[in-house]
Amino acid sequence: MYNIKKNVDKLKNGYSTFFLDPNEAREVSKYFKKNEFNVFKPYKDAEKVIFYKDKKPSVVLFKIITKEVFRHQDILGSIFSLNIEKCLFGDIIIDNDNYYFYLLESMKDYFLINFNKIKNSDIELEEIDIDTLKDYERKYKELELIVKSPRIDIVVANLSNTSRSKVKEKFKNKEIILNYNLLTNPSYILKDNDVFSIRHFGKYKFIKTINVTKKNNYVIKLYKYI
Question: Residue 23 is inside which H or E element, if any?
Fold first, then answer.
């Protein structure tokens, strides 16, 4: 709630918010009429956005220069290892073996000095034009699963090929994120368009339950973020 109030106060005082995930954006927008703010969305499918009044926020787009192959979670973990709050950077994009991320300009120099490794590999940062990816569309792999229930622990067990008992450990170890918040309830029933992450296994969007079989199993549709 503190982050919501902080961003609401910034916007009321004429300043841009920090980067907002979809939950935060929804909560902050409740305090304003639609015509009282603008939305900075760096590309069509951007998940993290910035609200502003008149002056567009100062944001940079970095390309990561490397010969290595990274996953989204590798880049995210290395950014967090700098003790950076999630509100200071935007989406991380992997496109055709190229790696990009958006960042508040106020953090630019800090990253240029300190963000030089991902995992154990050296990297370099190149600032590129902010509109380079404006037409980028997020890519997904479509999945259909047959599960006993759309409970998240059952779905996670299926996706990670892990027993239900070991899935409980994932919840205890804070490895499951639902709609950008830590999830501790393994019996949560997934709803349409819920977004969840499983550490080491990727990020998914639950699209819908397609049907229920004669044996009362559920056929569900998911998108896996690529």
Answer: helix 22-29
